[in-house]
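RETRY 2/3 - previous attempt timed out on the joint model. Re-submitting the same 1134-residue input unchanged.
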Amino acid sequence: MDLSRRWLSDYVDISDVSDKEFADKITLSGSKVESYAVEGEDLKNIVVGRILSLEKHPDSDHMWIAKVDVGAVSPLQIVTGAQNLSVGDIVPVALDGSTVHGGKEIRSGNLRGVLSEGMLCSLAELCLTVHDFPYAVEDGIFVLGEDCSRTPGTDIRTAIGLTDTVTEFEITPNRPDCLSILGLARETAVTFGKKMRYPEITYITAGENVRDYLKNVTILAPDKCYRYAGAVVKNVRIGPSPRFIRERLRACGVRPINNIVDITNFVMLEYGQPMHAFDLRYLQGGEVIVRNAAPGERITTLDDTDRALSPEMLVIADTEKPVAVAGIMGGEYSGIMDDTTTIVFESACFNGVSVRKTAKKLGMRTEASGRYEKGLDPNGCLTSLQRALSLVALLDAGDIVDGVIDVYPSPKEQTVIDFCPDWVNNFIGINVSADEQKKILEDLEFKVEDGKIYVPTWRGDVEHKADISEEIARFYGFDKIATRPLSGSATGGFSEAQKFENLIHARLVALGLTEVKTYSFISPKAYDKICLPENASYRNSIVISNPLGEDTSVMRTTALPCMLDVVSRNYNNRNLSESFYELATVYIPQGENELPQEKKTLVLAEYGEGRSFFSLKGKLEAIFAVAGVKEYDVEPLSTAASYHPGRTARITADGKELAVIGEIHPNVLENYDIGAKVWAAQIDFDLLYSLKHTLRLYQPLPKFPSVTRDLAFVCDKTEPVGRLEKLIAAAAGDILEKIELFDVYEGVQVGPLKKSVAFSLTLRAKDRTLTDAEADAAAQNAIRALAEEGAVLRQ
Amino acid sequence: MKEQLEKLRQAALEAVQQSEDLQTLENARVRFLGKKGEITSILKQMGGLSPEERPIMGQLANSVRQAVEESIAAAAENLKKKQQEMKLKAETIDVTLPGEKQPEGHRHPLEIVLNEVKDIFIGMGFQIADGPEVEWDYYNFEALNIPEGHPARDTQDTFYITEKMLLRTQTSPVQIRYMEKHKPPIRMIAPGRVFRSDPVDATHSPLFHQIEGLVVDKNITMADLKGNLLTLAKKLYGENTEIRLRPHHFPFTEPSCEIDVSCFRCGGKGCPMCKNEGWIEILGAGMVHPKVLERGGIDPEEYSGFAFGLGVERLAMFRFSVDDMRLYYENDARFLSQF
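RETRY 2/3 succeeded.
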């Protein structure tokens, strides 16, 4: 909302308040100023001049030498190329050393040998258009009319009224009343302790009766149209509006068109009430019917677009067809034309939700719909209509027919709230007397009587005593409220789950992994990119019904695609080797009547120098270790679609899949345009949490020495070492403290299809020094156990 | 014999002096003091001397031996020192060579800032809560005093799953969920992801992070709100930070305000960071609307509360001078490794 200070000053006197002070204080009382600018501020040293004489330039066939009176002792000589000037014209003169719009500086100089002591200005050089001064020409010098000050030497901004300050407000959606000059004047008056005036509404009618022209107004959908008021103006005299209208509209960012259109816009800005003017000729049957659109009905709107209407949309119709989409835009013939003679002014109030839905569905938001959406006050319709008529009278834009038609089936009642000054004081933490509170409310035009507050109907946002407390607080001043530290005691802290997350994050970072954060939504094509089979259950995702695009249209059921995107981006940005992790949420659908299950999954990925399946597995083992998860099984997994069938493992614990780790399948790498091997792991974080064992109890340091036995076995090449390890551990018994693989050998010495694996066994008893015999016995047990499985001790 | 001894002393001391390494010195020791050494042999000849000469010569011989022994010891010490010096010198390394690269992991900058905020609130007795990201319309809007058709729904372009299910547009629904499960006194913050249908650019993202805060107790007023959030501002931006409350509108708080902090770059004098205003907006807040308390099952006549929300991306942008929000989700290691 752009506010003209000039217009505001018509209703509240703030001559003693600077622009900055105005912006600061009105912001702190609740109407937020985004910025403000003074019109014509960049124009310097441009004055009114009168052309005393015009002579042809001796050396040019199109230039003129003008003598111009600029109020100085002697006239200036100025060379101009303009062809629209006559002696006696009043024009803007940019003097030597002046600045015109755009920052261009003007200096005296010679033009084809003739001295020119300045420049005559066009509208554009003053940052104006013909809409601001309709009598001026677009491509020539701006010749000032009777509506400007014509005394030579007068500063041009003063002379043509280019001195307004335009303040841009951010009005919150609960305050449609402030989308108007009068609404902001009310706020201004209370903020600065001033009295507010209202526009004078007086007009004389020209007889006849409104029903002679507008036969009837019928509201068929009273749930969507609360009120419809109409009046008729005949013998319309279309012409430009006077300057006071044009300059106010300009400052508020509305282009002046002609007197009738300008009046509708002027009233909308002043009162916040959208108005429409229909040409009566195109109102078939001379009737207005406010109804839902009929199935299949269409309308061509003022912007020349043919639109399909649907039955929940409200239209203004005549006896035959819709002539406007209610509260949004008129139809093609509803506009005012040069030969329009009789018009109907509409001032109506429509249901905000209905306007909002229709505007959204038709994809057209207009100034009017933006206002209706927020819920306007039906009680304001008639005053606005009368204001429009009084402007018609003032501008002599036509003859006003007697009477108005005002259909208002159920008038809006005032909200009544108990006046509780103590409650307000306690709620806000202030001490403002009942009288002071009453004064603030009355200044805002609330009525306070017998312990009740009667809320003006334009304040639809006020319905509870908490709302009243806001009115008191913002005008008392938020800055005057005390600052009190929270009292009382409360126990804060991380929950068990949060502590566990912190622990894992810390370990991941210590392991050299960098955290990434990716979007929760992905493209459904991502499942193809990671080569999930067509029938994979992971493809069943929560689908966003109105996504920004396909790329972000489903909620991920796996975070692997997001991680591979990150790897791809980094790989292609020439980041040579990286290790990443994300603690990601995935969303598993549970049907329409239940929210999806939001599961946490930990995804790791690394590529580049020094990274391998085993470097990543080591990290995984470190995470399990810090989580205190010791019991888990690792087995080869050849069926994970995104992974290399021979280089992938499934890790299970407690019979459930805790993690999958492996090398990413080359097809997937190709889909992601990654030219390096990538190893990734996906861990069920919720399961990891349920298995955690983070309570640590001290284990006494060993008192007796350990004995080691190194054993090497020859077995089939395909034999998983993990299985042998488990067999040894089981056979060696309680005294086995640690088993460590220290060599794997394949080659001529063991023969084809075989390999040699060597383990180092650390044996120790808690209560005595182990004898060699005991250690040997344990080793023999292990050897026997392995021999049964075909792994022979290597001699 | 006397001359012989004197000569030996001379020769021995000379040999010791000329020894340039421990091996030569050892050779010299063997030559003079070894079992078959020259001084040792002389001492063996003592038996042939007269009883008068014997003690005199014995004394002399001993003093010669002692002198040689001492000299050898001193020389050995000296040589050892020299040898070590040489060894150390030979072991000199170029200390300006770079250190070996260590694995280097980083938390995401958004998490770093979030942790800072969590830390501050835990210190003030807050719990940390969370709630679902795919949420019911009821919790995201209805219960927060934003009924169907409310204009505020338009300002938060919502991603819908079904008519009733959506991606939460704010962390505020956690207020309701928390109140449903906890009775006052309540002090909680709820950080999390929120979603709005904004196309990606330098200052917008369809997904971003908020931190919701809620305090409910008896006699909570706006003075408590101001005090609590002033503490937050001071802890985030320094002791001299001030806050300014501007009236605003949120459907679920009344009164509502936006909170500015005095610019932490210029201290309020005006700079490009604060667009010359001296203030930077960081929070939205307000007194919990009585209707919202009721929805959470709390009697608004007995209890009152305040709530606030802040954007993590914005905080991080200020903290790290990041000028483009896209960087947070591109996850380029060259960006992430800076934090």
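Chain B touches chain A through 80 residues (CB under 8 Å). Closing ticket.
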